[in-house]
Each structure stands twice: as structure tokens, then as C-alpha cells.
Amino acid sequence: MTLLRLNNITRRFPLGSPLYGPRKYLVAVDGVSLDVEMGRTTGIVGESGCGKSTTGRIALGLEPPDSGGVLFQGLPLPRIDSKKWRAQRRQMQLVFQDTLAALDRRMTVSALIAEPLAIHGIGDPASRKQRVAELLHGVGLGEGHGMLYPHQLSGGQRQRVVLARALAPKPSLLVCDEPVSALDLSVQAQIVNLLMDLQQELGLGLLFISHDLRVVRHVSDRIVVMYLGRVVEQGRADAIIDQPAHPYTQALVSAMPRLPGGFDHYVALPGEPPSPTDRPCGCPFHPRCPLARDVCRQSLPELLPLGPERQVACHLVRH
User: Where do the ABC transporter domain residues begin and end (predicted)?
Assistant: First the structure.
């Protein structure tokens, strides 16, 4: 069952003042389409500035798309800040990257986890207290942690609190925006495994956003690769990792730690991604692509099927 569907969404942000000539626009998301299935994980991967986080915010209705549509459980998202939208937000929750910024340092852990229950009018004080105790146990924390403040916890413990807070209203969808990037490797593994266990137990759909393909590979059923606001490749996780088709995906996969029988040809990319305010003509990746041809500089490749359940946007890939 498709829980979330993004249909060709775009998002532009105006720059500067119109008083000083024609305005420039930062194109953060440019024609992105993807699905998240119930009980499954769709991972979005790409370099910083590729539009991953903006895509996640549009999926939650926190940013309005300039064009395209968002369907949740088959229905369009209500207008932002409307009463229906606030009610639906109970089913869609965000797991933040910066845990200290996400948690009010003046509130105890128990109060932080109970706050969404009060906001959505779920239960009475006694049932909320019981729900908080269940959530603390579910994310691997003890009741004693409930009396502490965020600054008294480690980074991994704070991330568990953020996860418990997101799970409090019993959502169907979690959008995880770089949830482990600030954690040590051993703690990353704990949080990722916790997420996967909770997903299996609760049947959650996950939109997992990260620049780390190693983590995305571990958690995702499908992977969406973004570059400069566009999807350059998407499909089953095993197909993307084992046989990357787009040159950018090949470079990302080649940078992963080597595994026996894995993709073992390292692809070095020169330079930095172009500015979203001054996008190159043709394929946005062509200034850094070692295989670029004249056609890549002249026309934008379409995202076309490559076998079953896979799409690639590259002039050099035979579809």
C-alpha cells in the first residue's frame, strides 16, 4: 500500500529584492517524484544542497510545493496551517538531526515526550504518563531518564528521546532527516537498528534522508539519488548498490567501504556541485561527469525506466 506519493514536485526560493532588477531563484527541488510504502523505507541520498531536506519538508506539508502534488494515504495534503492539516500531522512526524535544537532544554524528557499527546488532545494525564513510560522503554531508555533535561543526556540518548517524541501520537509515517549524522559510528548502528525494529513492530513507513549511502543502503528498500534538486536514479536498493547506472550514483557507491564482490572501481568527481542559483545547461551533472558528451551539455535527460522498478536520468544509459 502506498502511504506517501510525491508527484513531480518543484520548489523555488526567490533571492534578493525585485527593486534591483530581475529576481533570481534558488531551485531547491525540481520535478521530484517518489513513493513510500506502508511498512517500508524509501531512502533519499545525495550531497549537501541537493534538495533532500526540502523534499522531506514538502512531504510533511511544512513547505508548499510550487507545482506538483503530495498524496498521503491517497488524498491530497490539506492546506498548510488549516485545521485538517494539523489533525493529519498526527499521522506524519519528523525525526530531527539537531537534537539539542529540537528539544526544549527547559523541559524534562517526560514532559517533552508527553507534549505531542497534549497538543493533539490524546488521552488524559494518567494515560499520557503511562504512554511516556512505554515510549521510554520502547526506545531503550529507563524511567529515570524521564526526569533528566536534554543537556544531561548523550547524543545517542537525545536521539532516542526525539524518536520517542515522534512516535508518541502513533504516526503512520516518519520522515527522518539525517537522524544519525551527528553520532558516533557505534551509536549510529544502535539508532538505525532501533528504527528498523520499531518499523517492523509498528508497520511504519519511513522516508530516510541522508548524505551517507552506507546508512541508506542498510535501512532502505528503495533508494532515490538526488543531484542539484533532481532525481538522477531511483529503484530497489540492491539494484542501485550492486549495479549503479548513473555516473553520479557510481561515484557515491565507489566511495563506500569495499565489500567482497562489490563495486570496486573508484570514481573521483572533480570540483563542487554548481550553485542552485546558476544551474548549468543540459544535464546538471555534466560539469563534473567524466563521461560527459556534447548531448549532455545541450539537453536535460529525462528520468526513464531501466528494467523493472528502476529509473535513470542519463543520456549515456541505454534504456
Answer: 4-253
